Structure formats: C-alpha cells, structure tokens
Amino acid sequence: MRLHKLEVTAFGPFASTETVDFDALGADGLFLLHGQTGAGKTTILDAVAFALYGTVPGARKDGKRFLSDHAAPGAVPTVMLDATLGGRRMRITRSPEFFRPKKRGAGTTKQNAKASLTWLDGTGQNLTRLDEIGDAVGAALGMSADQFFQVVLLPQGEFARFLRADSDERGNLLERLFDTSRFGDIEEWFADARRASAAALETSRIATDKLLGQISTASGEDEQLDRVPVEWASDVLDTSRAALNESAQTLAHARATSDTAVVTLRKLETTRDLQRRRSIACEQRAQYEAGAAERAVLRLELERSAAAGPVAALAGELDAAASRHSSASAASDRAYRALAQLDGSEAVTEGLCTSGTDFVADRRVVAAAVRAWNTEVGALEQLRILVRRAESEERTATQLEGELATVERAVESMQSERATLPAAIDEVEAAVHSAVHAAAEIPALEMESTRLGKAVEAVAELAKTRTKLAAAEKAHNSARTAFNDARAHTLDLREQRLAGMAAELASRLVDGEPCVVCGSEDHPAPTQATESTVTKQDEDAAAALEHRAAALTEKKAALVLALVRVQDSLVQQSGDCNSAQLIDARDTVDAALKKARAEASRLDQLRARLAHLRSEDQRIAAAVGEKHSAAAGLAARATQVRASAQEMRSRIAVAMDGAESIDQRLARLEELITLSTDLVDKRVAAAGSATELQKLTDALAAKVAESGFDSAADAAQRVLAPARIASIEKHLEAANDVRAHTEQVLAEPAILAVADTEPVDTVAAKNVVDDAASRLHAAVAAHAECKRRVEQLEALTAQLWAAVDRVAPMQAKHEELAALADVVAGRGQNARKMSLRSYVLASRLEDVAESASARLRRMSSGRYEFVHSDEAESRGRRGGLGLDIRDDYTGVVRSAKTLSGGESFLASLSLALGLADVVAAESGGVVLDTIFIDEGFGTLDADTLESVMGVLDELRAGGRVVGIVSHVDEMRQRIPSRLHVIRERDGSRLQLFAAS
C-alpha cells in the first residue's frame, strides 16, 4: 500500500479544502506531521482511515461528527484519497453521514453517506456502493479496519496499554487483528460433534434400556442392574425355555390323565344304564306275577260270558231263525272259503265242529285263535315301534358320524395349516431382524453417500485447482524474480544518487543566491555532474517500476495462497483418493442404502405379519384342542347309538324269522281275526236257521244243559257286554306283552352280567373328569403362555444383542471425540489448559514478541528484549498470552509495568512495529509502503532518540515511507520533510515542507 494524495474538505477541524501530496512529502522516506495540540494532526490519519474503510479508529468513531464546525453552511464533508492498493492505483471519495440545514424552513435534514471508487489504471468497473467499495478495499489490502488501524496507523497510547494489559485484554486486541474465527469454528465443530455423538449414544442407551425393560416385563423378572445386560437377558431366556419344557411335560401328563378319566366315566355310565334297565324289567315281572289271580278271575268271567252267549243268542234269535236260515247258510260257506284261503287259518278251520252244532266249541276255537293272533299283533306293534326307534337311532348315528367326519376333516385341515406356521414365523422373524438392522444402518449410509458425492466433486475440482496452482506458482516465481530485480535496481540507483547528491545540489546553485546547504552566496567550486549521475527522475522511474512489480508479486502471491487453501480443502474432502475409487465406493454405498431403505420400509408390515402368524398359531392350537374334545364326544355317542340300533335290529330279525314284513303279517293277522269271527257268526246263524223253530227249543234246552246254567235267564245274566269283553281281552294281552318283554330283557347277556353287581355311582368319576379337564385347560394355557414368552424373549434378546453391538463402537468413537474436544477446548489432557484459539493467538504473540525483540534490542542498546510466556494464568483467565521484559543488565525477567516512560515508549514502538510485520505476513505478505507512528518521542533522551531514529531509518531503507506524528521540536530539526498543521480561529490549514 502506498498513499499518493489526500484531499479533505469541511472535515474535522479543516473548514475548507486541504491537500496532502504524499509523493512529495514521502520522497525522502521519512516525514514529520506536527502542529499544536488540537490542530488536527490525528485528523489527517482519520481522513486516510475514513477514505479506505468509512470509519475512524478508537472512540472517535462513536461521535460521528465529521462535518467541520468551521465549514460554511451547505458545505459537504468530503475525503478524497489517491493510493495504490494491491498493485492497482485507485481514487476513493467518501462523504460521511451528516446533517445539513434544510433548504426550506428551519432545522436540519440527514444526508446519507456516499462513496465512489475509480480505478485509475483504466481497467475494472468503477464502484459507488458502500459495501462493494469496502469489499474491494479489504481484498486489495488483505486486512480488516481494526488490523489497518493497528498496523498502518500506530495509535498513540494504545500499544503502551497493550504492553501493560492482562491476558484477557491482550487477547481481545489480538483477536481483532488476527482472524481466529476459523479456529473458533473448529472448537465449536468439536463441541457440536461431541454433543451430537453424546445424543446419539444416549439414544442408543435409551433404546437398550427400553429393550431391557421390555425383557423384564415379558419375563416378569426384575432387571439386575449389577450384571451385564446381555448376560442377564440370556439367563432370563434360558429360564423361560426351561419353563417351556416343563410346561410341555405337564401338558402331556394332564392330557393323559384326562383321557383315562373320560374312559372310566363312560364304562361306569354304561354299567349304570344296564342296571337301570334290569331293575325296571324285574319290577315289571313282579307286577305281572302279582296280578295272576286277577287275570284268572277275568279269564273265568270271560269264559262264562262266552258260554252264556250262545244260549242268549239262541233265545234272542228264536223268532228270526227261519228267515235267516237260507242267507246264513250261504254266508257261512263263503266265510269258510275265504278264511281257508289265508295262511294260519288252520287253527280255526281244523278246530271247528264238523257237525255244525257245537257252536260253543267253535267259538272257543275261534276265541283261542283270535287271542293268539291278537297277542301276535301286539308283539308286532311293539316290533314296529322298535323298528322306528332303530331307524331313528341309525339316523342319529349317521348324523353323529357325519359330524365326527366333519370335525376330523377340520382338525386335519387346521393341523396341516399349523404345520406350515413355524417355518413361516421363522422366515418373518428373520426378515424383521434384517429390516431392523437395515433401518439402523440408513443414517450412516446416507452420511457416507453424501460424503462420497462431495468427495467425487472435490476430486474433479482438485485436478483443475492443481493445474491452476502450478500455473499460478510459476507466474508468482516470475513476478517475484522481476520484483527482486526491480528492487535491486532501485536500491542501486538510490545509492548512486546519494553518492552524486553534491552534483545535484550544485546544479541548483545560482550566483548571488545563498546555498540551501551552507547558506553562502559564494560558490567557488561547485561539483560538476558526470554522465553516470543519477537524477531524481531516474530514481522515480525505477521506484515506479518496483512498485508495479511489487503489486504484481502481491497479486500473484495472493492467488497462490488462495489456490493452496482451496487445494488443501479439496484434498481433505476427497481423502486423497482417485475418482474411480470414490465412484465405486459411492455406488456400493448407494446400492446398500437403496437395499436398506427397501428392507426398512417393510418393517411395520413384517411386524404385523409376525404378530398375525403367532396369533394364528395360538388360535389354531386352541381350536384343535376344542375339536379333539368334540370329536371324542361325537365318536363315543355315535358308537353307543349305532350299537343300540344294531341290538334292536337283531331283536326284530329274531322276532320276525321269515320273509314277511311286519306290515304284511299285521294285515294278514287282522284279516284272519276278522274272517274267523265272521265265520263263527255265520255258522251260528246257519245252525240256528237249520234247526228252525222246531229244534230251537230243544237246542236251547240242550244248550242250557251243556252250559251248566240253571236256565236260559241265568245264562243271559252271565253274558258280558262287548266293551267289557274287549277290555278284559286287552288287559290280558297287555299283561302277556309285559311278561314277554321282561323275559327278553332279563335274558340279554349284558343284563345277566350286571345281575350281581353293586349299584354304580358316576358322580365321583364325573368330578374326576371335570377336574382333569380343568387341569388340562390350565396346562394348555400355561404352555401357550410359556411359548409366547419364549418367542417374545428370543426376539427381544436378539434386538438387545444388535443394540449392544451398535453401542460398543459408538462408545469408543465418542470417548475418542470427547477427549479430543476437551484438548481443543483447553481441558482434559491439555497440560497448558489452552484452547485452540488461545493457542493460535499465543503463537501469533510469540511471533510478535520475536519480531519486536529485534527492534527493542537495537533501540535499547541490547539491554531489553521481550519474553513470551505460555503458562496458564490463575482464576480461569486464558493462558499463553503473557508478555514480560528481560533485562540483560541484571538477567531478570520482569513485568513490562516496571519500565520507565521512555523505556515504555521504546517497548511500545517495538511491539507496534513487530505487530505490523506479523499482521502484514498474516494478510498474505502485503507490502506496507506507508505507515504512521503517533506520538511518544518526547519521553526519550538524546541517545535513545538516536537509536530510535536509526530503527526508523532502517524501515525507510526498504522503500517504506514512515510518517511520525509529534510536536517535539528536536524532531523538526532531524526530519526535513514535514507537514505542519496550523490551528486558526476559522479552522485549521496545512503547510507542506518537502526535502526536495
């Protein structure tokens, strides 16, 4: 940076326009800015700072009073600076924010700040936006406003405060000068990474604790916090598996016990039914035997009625005998023929009296036959009822067998369906485990995919950057060579000019006018210029060439530094791998990510499927048990009913013993009964009609005699009504039927087998069956619960193992990251307790102390030098920023606060110059051709001042222009180039004294 011209108008104490020609003022490399206190010396420096950055150093910027109080109404405060920055010459014009009188009415109105930047080299677009001008100046200088104020405008008193400041105050200033934000970002990145890692680790721990809680809930056992989680979970799973085996044994024993109890109960119920049937048959037989006397009386009554009937009939039919003889005889013959045609009629036809006169015998034969036939009819009716019962029992058995077959088919179908469930459950469980593992891997795969994508882009950009860097380094080397050549040429010309300065001064001598060196008006032997004499124009031309070369070198160096930073960043992003490796790795990661997402998306569906399969397994197991119980009941009932039907069919077959059916035999018997009765009636009618009236009396007398009755009247009284006869016959037939049935029942082998057994009680056996069934149901439920618990614990334990496997590397990584974050933050294993940012500042301060010590030793004649301390300070203050003074006279290192006023100025000036060197280097090697030193020389003695001036001469020897702000009179004698700030009532003005 080199200043050429400054112009201020209505700015600070300057009412009108004042101009400073820095090219003329700094031609000798050193100039003095002096004037009375308050005249405006510092305002000149403020104007330079304002032109560049739009602000001024220190507390003066807070007042914002840039408009001169001495300026005419309507004047606009303006600063114009002509300077070369970063190798390019520019003109910056700025007007600050101020209040001007209103054009109409009283009061003021605010005028906004304005600025413009004009490129004087004819290239580039001129700028008028404040932010764009600020960016352009910052890019050209490579430093911020605070850095410029400390490096170029060495402020009065501030470095003395910096020298005596504590670590915190010194650190605040260094942070303004040196950009440590990137190191702060690194500290924050480590802190954020540790927090993120801790959060992820805590999330994994919470997931593990949740799994342990689920295992505890599923197993019903309290979690043992003093044991390793996976060991405790494995023990719980082993215990549950042992309980499952035990429940399976208990279930098998309960099922066997239940089956045995059911078989025993069925045997007892069969015996009880047989005993009940025998008891009923014995009661019926006893009742039959008890009614034998009654039946004998009824049979005698029936016989006497039958005997008295013909006598009464003869007496009653005596009058009608003649008229019925003819028809009765014919009817008797027809009835006989009809009866003789039927099977079984021999009992009547062969027993009838051939003479046709023994009507009683005939009736007795018929009555006996009818009774036999009625008995057989009754037996056949019982057989018909038995057939209906057998058919009903067979239909019931068929229905039961059909239901049993349906149940058996359902059981077989359910068992087949259940047989497929274990494999399906295992398959879905494996898929669930795979999906859970895939879902856990998705975040890491996404991060890796993003990182590899950026790395691929970085590899492509890295190749371009390396090509650019090689070209830039080559251009920078060429520019630096050109600059060194130009600088050497300028120094050579300057030395030649100084050597020939007498000839140059002699060329300005005029006869009769005093010499500017000695004041004599006589010039007896002026030195003559030679052909090798170097003029100011030659030196200026060489200096201009050097400045252009320096600007170009700075520009090329800045480009190289920027490309190096870009290259380092790209190398870090790409991991120094080639593009093919990164693309293959990214494709692999993307494929894995796609597969993991696909598997994870099915997790809820798979869990629902697994729960459904387990529910189906339990449901089918319960249904099979119920179906087995139902099948056993149906089979027993069908067997019993089928056996009863077969027993009835056997009885029917034995009873029938022929080709006729029951209906055919019943019809034939009923017809025999009807025709036999009709035959007897017709024969009686025919006999009566045969004897006619003449024989009726004899026949009646004979009949009375045969019947044993005293008279016909007595016989008539013995005749029973038909209803009575039918009732007696029915009673006798029913008694015969009961006798036949009881004899048949008591003759059955099963009944005979239980004849001598004790009565059976099934209540106890039924209670045993009910108890066994309850125990069986409890065992089934317990076994299902144990199986469900084992399956749930197996799934949870597998998830716990997976979670523990994920936590272990995360824990190691977190511990490593936390330890590194502590070191970066100044904690943990950081012995000096210095954060990364403090360490960087301490390194910068060490560089400053080293650079400043070289100048301090020179100015103090080798007595003093700076000592940097990186020890941690007390009470939590930052360490590494200690700065003391070593006194070589005593060998003691002491605080800078013990220095005298003059010594403090030497130390502060050395520190300022050293800091300027380090900041310039930090800013990319910017060449600072112009610097200002503000005040402090009044505290020095003559010898020390001479040493200080020697150091300043060294600064300007490199082509640098040094401006000193001071009001010390001795400085005006030592420095011929001066800018005098004159204070007047109507505002300050400037007066320039150039050595040339």
Return the structural class.
alpha/beta
Please tell me what the overall shape is.
rod-shaped
The chain-level mean pLDDT equals 79
Calculate Rg over CA atoms: 70 Å
Which keywords apply here?
996 residues; alpha/beta; five-stranded antiparallel sheet; 27 helices
Report on the structure:
- The chain is an alpha/beta fold and 996 residues long.
- 69% of the residues lie in helices and 9% in strands.
- The longest helix has 79 residues.
- It is rod-shaped and about 230 Å long.
- The relative contact order is 0.15.
- The mean pLDDT is 79.
Brief rundown of the structure:
This protein is α/β, with parallel strands linked by helices and 996 residues long.
Topology:
Blueprint lengths: L1 E10 L2 E8 H4 L4 E6 L5 H13 L6 H4 L14 E8 L2 E8 L2 E4 L6 E4 L2 E6 L10 H12 L3 H7 L1 E2 L3 H7 L2 H11 L3 H39 L9 H62 L1 H26 L3 H20 L5 H4 L9 H61 L1 H79 L1 H6 L29 H39 L4 H23 L1 H54 L5 H46 L4 H7 L3 H25 L2 H5 L9 H62 L11 H24 L4 E6 L12 E6 L4 E4 L5 H22 L7 E5 L7 H16 L3 E5 L3 H6 L3 E5 L6 E5 L3
Parallel strand pairs: 3-14, 3-15, 9-13, 13-14
Antiparallel strand pairs: 1-2, 1-4, 4-5, 5-8, 6-7, 10-11, 11-12, 15-16
